[in-house]
Structures are given as structure tokens and as C-alpha cells.
Design a protein that fits this description.
Chain A has about 200 residues and is mainly α. Chain A has helices spanning about 25-45, 75-100, 110-140, 155-190, and strands at about 50-60, 60-70. Chain B has one domain (about 1-35, about 45-160). Chain B has a two-stranded antiparallel ribbon with strand order 1-2. Classes of the chains: A mainly alpha (about 200), B mainly alpha (about 160).
């Protein structure tokens, strides 16, 4: 009984995946998650509304100005776009790895990298969603204590488009969580790095 | 790495994360200040901002979870549940810290397009407390990412099937 649990058998044959079945469920989920995060990115990045509003009244003549609401005006939405763009790029990369990366496997590290990158991406996507959700709530309801007025009553198309982007990214976040759990379970199931109990002689 | 070292590393990280989340929740939860702004006197409380309320709630829940997870014995069947819960908790921590940072950034810098004035000039002590709480929350998020890595690494060595 020489080995402890979990020690990599360095003096034995390198663990090789004999039969790794193609994971159709994981691939389908990744495609849907890619579509969700990519659409969230695009919908928010193209979010822009221009309106003529009355900004002041001098005497009896109202002064109108053309105001534009863009997603760049709020750093939280910029972060949301960047985080979702990263998440969709990650999904695309993982789809490519899943479909064609079988030969680029060095000591079984490919599955480990996929699992680790999945976890990092889901964390990034969740932080982008959190920031954008609360910024959208601030725009929708304002904050009376800080005297911040709401803007959604004037720019309702901007708000509804932003809300649609948020919903799409929440769908992507839920799918990314499931994908992350599945790819971590895959590490246990296929045991590429010798994650197993030592063989009993 | 031996099992014992892995377990100690996981425990130490979890204790640090417990300290960070507890600090963040307590400091943010006790942030309030009254100020006189010209003729108006107004009181700022963390409760007025939904993002800060979410931040306090998430950090309080996570600190209770961290405390309970310290007592899970090794080699029990709970560990896979702990790894899944660690992932969920990390997600919650990162979303609450980024939401609080987004709103705090508006409070400090304002937003010229929407005409939201910054409030940090009127209530500087409140802003300082919030900054400290946010720093602790950020450290908690990073620590929990490491806790997740440590517990996933420990749990993957345990059993041989899912």
C-alpha cells in the first residue's frame, strides 16, 4: 500500500483517456449559453435612445433639448457589456475545444483547464449581472434619499431594451452555472489526471 | 500535497473568508450619518440603497455558511454539496460586491448625464465606512474564489464516481 490518496502516480504510465465520449448535452448547453450571452452583449451595446425633452421653462416658453441615453454613460453597463462579451467569447472557445481539440491534450490538462475557465467565467458573468441589475434599478426607481431622479419614465425604450439584455444575460448565467458543474463532474468521471484512489494491490 | 495539508489550507482560507465577510457585513450594517445640507437635514443609511442592503444580507448569510462549513468532517459525503454551495456562494459574493461598487461609484462621482449629484461631499464619514466595507467585501470575494478552488481540489480526490 504505497500511495496516499490523490498522489499522482509519477512512476507509472501517464493516464490516458481511452474512450472519451463526446458530450452532446454539454455542447448543446454551451451553444445556448453562447447565444444568450452574445445577444445580451449586442442588445446592451446597441442600446441608445434620443429624445427631445423640456429642460427648463423661461416665462412661458419651454426650452427643449435633445438628450441621448447611451449605455456608455454608465460604467456599470460598460462593465456588463465587457463581462458578457468575455463570457460569450469563452463559450465560443469552449465549443471549438469541444469539437476539435481532442488532440491538443497534454497530460490530461485540457479538461482541467476547461473546468477552471468555466468557473472563472461564471464568476465574471455573475458580477457583470449584479452591477447592471442594481444600476438598472437605480434608473428605474431613482433614490429619493440621495435625490437621484429616475430616468425610465423619460427613456422607456432604453430601459426596456436594457431589461431585455439583463434577462438574456441571466439565462446565460444560469446555463453557465450548470455547464460549470457538469464540466467539474466530468473531471471526476473521466479521471484524466489520476484523480482516483490508489489501486489496491 | 498530503490530505492533511490540503485540509488545513482549506480551513485557513475559509476562516479568513469568514472574517472578511463578517467585517464587511458589520461595517456596512452600521453605516449611517446625519448631515445638514443647507436648510435640509437628511440622514443617510445603508438601508436606503438596495445594493447596500443586498451586500449586507449576502455577506451575513455567507459568514454564517462559512462558520457552519468549518465543522464538516473530512471524508464525509457532504463534500460535493459543499463544493456546489461554495460555487453558489462565490457567485453571490461577486455579484453583491460589484453591485455595491457600481452604486458607490455613482455616489462618489455622480453621473453628469442623468444629473445625479455625488453625495460623498455631504456625508464623508458614511462614504469612508462604505469604502472600508467594500474593500472587505472585495477581499471576501477573492478569498472565496480560493476556497472554491481548494475545496474542489480536495473533493475531487475523495470518491471515484459522481
Amino acid at each position: 500500500m504505497a500511495h496516499e490518496n490523490g498522489m499522482k502516480p509519477d512512476d507509472q504510465v501517464e493516464p490516458v483517456l481511452v474512450s472519451e465520449p463526446r458530450e452532446w448535452l454539454l455542447l448543446t448547453l454551451r451553444v445556448i449559453a453562447f447565444l444568450a450571452t452574445a445577444s445580451a452583449t449586442l442588445v446592451m451595446a446597441l442600446n441608445k435612445e434620443t429624445k427631445k425633452l423640456v429642460v427648463a421653462t423661461i416665462g412661458s416658453t419651454p426650452i427643449t433639448a435633445t438628450l441621448t441615453a447611451k449605455f456608455q454613460h454608465s460604467p456599470a453597463f460598460v462593465f456588463f457589456v465587457i463581462a458578457n462579451a468575455n463570457a460569450s467569447f469563452h463559450n465560443l472557445l469552449m465549443i471549438a475545444v469541444e469539437l476539435g481539440g481532442r488532440k491538443f491534450d497534454h497530460k490530461g490538462l485540457r479538461l482541467l483547464f476547461v473546468a477552471v475557465l468555466d468557473m472563472l467565467t461564471v464568476v465574471l458573468a455573475s458580477s457583470g449581472d449584479g452591477a447592471a441589475t442594481f444600476m438598472a434599478d437605480l434608473g428605474k426607481r431613482g433614490n429619493s434619499h440621495a435625490r437621484w431622479n429616475k430616468i425610465c419614465d423619460k427613456f422607456d425604450h432604453y430601459c426596456s431594451q436594457g431589461g431585455g439584455a439583463l434577462i438574456a444575460s441571466y439565462v446565460g448565467l444560469g446555463l453557465l452555472t450548470i455547464i460549470s458543474i457538469l464540466s467539474t463532474m466530468r473531471l471526476v468521471r473521466l479521471k484524466p489526471l489520476g484523480y482516483q484512489r490508489a489501486p489496491v494491490p | 500535497m498530503e490530505d492533511f495539508h490540503k485540509r488545513i489550507a482549506g480551513l485557513v482560507l475559509r476562516v479568513l473568508a469568514l472574517a472578511a465577510t463578517l467585517t464587511a457585513a458589520i461595517i456596512m450594517g452600521t453605516s449611517k450619518e446625519s448631515a445638514n445640507f443647507y436648510a435640509l437635514s437628511f440622514e443617510v443609511n445603508y438601508n436606503d440603497t438596495p445594493a447596500f442592503k443586498y451586500f449586507v444580507i449576502v455577506n451575513a448569510v455567507v459568514s454564517v455558511y462559512s462558520f457552519l462549513a468549518l465543522f464538516v468532517p473530512s471524508k464525509s459525503s457532504f463534500w460535493r454539496l459543499i463544493v456546489a454551495l461554495d460555487l453558489l456562494v462565490t457567485l453571490m459574493l461577486t455579484s453583491c460586491i460589484s453591485a455595491a461598487l457600481a452604486i458607490a461609484q455613482v455616489g462618489k462621482n455622480g453621473n453628469s448625464i442623468t444629473r445625479w449629484l455625488p453625495i460623498c461631499n455631504q456625508v464623508p464619514d458614511y462614504c469612508d465606512r462604505v469604502t472600508i466595507a467594500l474593500a472587505a467585501g472585495f477581499a471576501a470575494a477573492i478569498l472565496y474564489l480560493m476556497v472554491l478552488a481548494a475545496s474542489a481540489h480536495a473533493a475531487l480526490d475523495e470518491d471515484d464516481c459522481c
